[in-house]
């Protein structure tokens, strides 16, 4: 017998492959669908599309000498069902987790998944920038300036001389270091713009199953247009140059109802997380 769980049926009972996150027939009301996050039912519901829901299969008979495990009130049973008449109208059963979604019901990515995706992209782009700097000789000049800066600090500390702040800043902000900063900024914008316009996600987001979508249009609607695809990374870099604003931009999804950064709000985008695809054996 196949372990595949067709869309619209309850998640698998314990001991079988867990159903992937997605929309399934609501175990409370068969006329609608409820979102299963891969672990438990959430509060997110929507009207069911298509034919009437199929009845859930009966639980398997208990082996001889054993009784069928009792289903606790308010908790999903072996087939995701609830006791008849539960929950009372207007109340959500315990254990339900509210997951923020787009207006059309697609779960939004958490701040932690977005941070992980950004870290992956950062390390990938940093590796490319380091290769460019090494090939062009910029890395050697930056290293030389760093050694001169360290020597100046040692001189100030050992002689007790008054530090020259302007000279110290000049040793750090050399033409070579500023050139590398410009290369990093341009590379990030070009990389992000091309990936978002073609795939709707950067490599880091693809690894984390994240996708950038137009505001409140997460259900595979219109693709991210070129204006949003390029405006989003440009605004990310511009905000990062403003003291404190760049940090606020990064942290904004932690308290924003729509889980948007400031550059998301300017570009009119949201980041959703795709459910894990099943790995049937």
What this model shows, in words?
It is a single chain. It is built from eight helices and five strands; from the N terminus they run βββαααααβαααβ. It is mostly helical. The chain has a three-stranded antiparallel sheet with strand order 1-2-3, with no helix packed on it. It has a two-stranded antiparallel ribbon with strand order 4-5. The chain starts with 21 loop residues before the first strand and ends in an 8-residue tail after the last strand. Residues 22-54 form the DUF2510 domain. Residues 1-28, 46-85 are annotated as: Disordered.
Low-confidence stretches: 1-9, 12-16, 62-96
Percentage of residues in DSSP E strands: 5-15%
The whole-angstrom Rg is 27 Å
Q: Tell me the quaternary state.
A: single chain
Number of strands: 5
Number of helical stretches of at least 4 residues: 8
The overall pLDDT average reads 77
Main β-sheet: number of strands, strand sense, barrel status? Answer: 3 strands, antiparallel
Structural class: mainly alpha
Question: How many distinct folded domains?
Answer: 2
Q: Could you estimate the helical fraction of the residues in percent?
A: 40-55%
Biggest sheet strand order reads 1-2-3
Shape: elongated
Distance between the termini: 11 Å
What string gives the helices and strands in order?
EEEHHHHHEHHHE
Quick take:
This protein is mainly alpha-helical.
């Amino acid at each position: 017998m196949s372990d595949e769980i067709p869309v619209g049926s309850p998640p698998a009972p314990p001991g079988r492959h867990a159903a992937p996150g997605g929309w399934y027939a609501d175990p409370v009301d068969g006329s609608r669908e409820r979102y299963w996050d891969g672990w438990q039912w959430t509060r997110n519901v929507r009207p069911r599309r298509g034919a009437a829901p199929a009845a859930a299969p009966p639980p398997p008979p208990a082996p001889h000498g054993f009784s069928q495990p009792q289903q606790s009130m308010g908790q999903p049973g072996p087939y995701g069902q609830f006791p008849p008449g539960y929950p009372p109208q207007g109340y959500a059963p315990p254990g339900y987790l509210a997951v923020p979604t787009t207006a059309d019901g697609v779960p939004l990515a958490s701040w932690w998944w977005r941070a992980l995706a950004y870290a992956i992209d950062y390390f990938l782009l940093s590796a490319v920038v380091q290769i460019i700097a090494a090939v062009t000789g910029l890395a050697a000049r930056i290293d030389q300036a760093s050694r001169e800066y360290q020597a100046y600090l040692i001189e100030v500390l050992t002689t007790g001389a008054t530090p020259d702040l302007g000279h110290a800043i000049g040793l750090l902000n050399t033409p070579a270091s500023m050139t590398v900063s410009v290369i990093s900024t341009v590379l990030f914008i070009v990389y992000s713009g091309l990936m978002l316009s073609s795939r709707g996600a950067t490599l880091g987001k693809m690894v984390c199953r994240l996708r950038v979508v137009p505001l409140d249009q997460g259900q595979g609607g219109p693709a991210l247009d070129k204006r949003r695809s390029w405006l989003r990374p440009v605004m990310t870099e511009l905000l990062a140059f403003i003291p404190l604003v760049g940090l606020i931009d990064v942290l904004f999804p932690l308290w924003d109802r729509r889980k948007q950064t400031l550059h998301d709000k300017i570009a009119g985008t949201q980041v959703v997380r795709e459910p894990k695809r099943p790995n049937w054996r």
